[in-house]
Amino acid sequence: MFSKSCQYAIQAILYIGLKGGNKTPVSIKSICNDQNIPNHFLAKILQLLVKQKILSSVKGPNGGFILNKPIRNFKLIEVVEFIDGSEIFNQCGIGFKRCSDDTPCPVHDTFRQVKNKIKEILTQKSLKQLCDEINEGKTNLILYSKS
After folding, report:
1. Disulfide-capable partner of 93 in 35, 58, 111, 125 (CB 3.0 to 4.6 Å)?
2. Which tens digits make up the pLDDT trace of 61-95?
3. pLDDT in tens, 111-138
4. 83 near 77, Cβ under 8 Å?
């Protein structure tokens, strides 16, 4: 449902939330290594998130990226809407141009329920809640490095 850019942005935000939040800068190298994201691709995404004031960039040898708001107030819907836009929640699930409530495609109602649930999760759950679930072992953030 989400573009690769949006997926990487969400993975990076979750990683930053877990490792540093809005206090400790997290290096792009550690995000790329642990999440198996191409460095050049992630660098562009993180620059966009800094421009949008979702993240701040900290310069220097211990630099990296931090969240611009407290983790408990951060919602992933902000990232999704910035990267992919809010239209993804209104598009036809199988790509028809004229799909609507008046002229539904064969999966219209089912896809609408799924999209609404995804939007609800991204809007209601805070980054803190998601990080807490990871820290408690209820869910995980798959790390690819051996560290």
Report:
1. 111
2. 889 999 999 888 889 999 999 999 988 888 898 88
3. 999 999 999 999 998 888 988 898 888 8
4. no
Instruction: State the DSSP string of 77-105.
Output: HHHHHHHT-GGGGTS-TT--TT-SSSS--
Local structure of residue 126 (DSSP, 8 states): B
Q: Cα–Cα distance between 35 and 30 in angstroms, integer?
A: 8
The Cα angle at residue 20 between residues 85 and 47, in degrees rounded to 5: 40
DSSP H helical ranges for 20-58 = 28-35, 39-51
Q: Which CATH architecture has domain 4-135?
A: Orthogonal Bundle (1.10)
Domain ranges in the chain are 4-135
Which pTM was predicted? Answer: 0.85
Longest dimension (CA), the chain: 57
